[in-house]
Design a protein that fits this description.
This protein is an alpha+beta fold. It has three helices and four strands. It has a four-stranded antiparallel sheet, with helices on one face.
Length: 103
């Protein structure tokens, strides 16, 4: 009996209307004592000719004192300015699924 392989890493490239691209990488890995972790990375580039740049996942300093409008425009992390939480969840939801769903 063979065991089906599970997805442990997913990369998804999204092309934006301005020609730039965002890459979402979701990865499942194990730390000390075999505790399972999920890592999410977002990269961006201006065009296919440019290099990828890793985006920060930390909100702007002072984001707690910002109004909602200020936070939406200036307080969000670089990741959340480039991709939506739904796009991140779509990539991450594939982790742990059988490889056969990709066919």
């Amino acid at each position: 009996m063979s065991e089906e392989q599970l997805i442990t890493k997913v990369s998804q490239i999204l092309t934006r209307p301005d020609g730039s691209e965002c890459k979402i990488v979701a990865e499942r890995f194990f730390g000390p004592s075999f505790q399972e972790y999920t890592g999410i990375y977002v990269l961006r580039r201006e065009s296919p000719e440019h290099n990828w740049t890793l985006l920060n996942d930390r909100p702007a300093p002072g984001w707690r004192e910002m109004s909602v409008d200020e936070y939406v425009q200036h307080g969000r992390s670089e990741q959340l300015r480039a991709v939506s939480p739904g796009e991140i969840m779509r990539a991450a939801s594939l982790l742990g699924q059988p490889m056969s769903i990709l066919q």
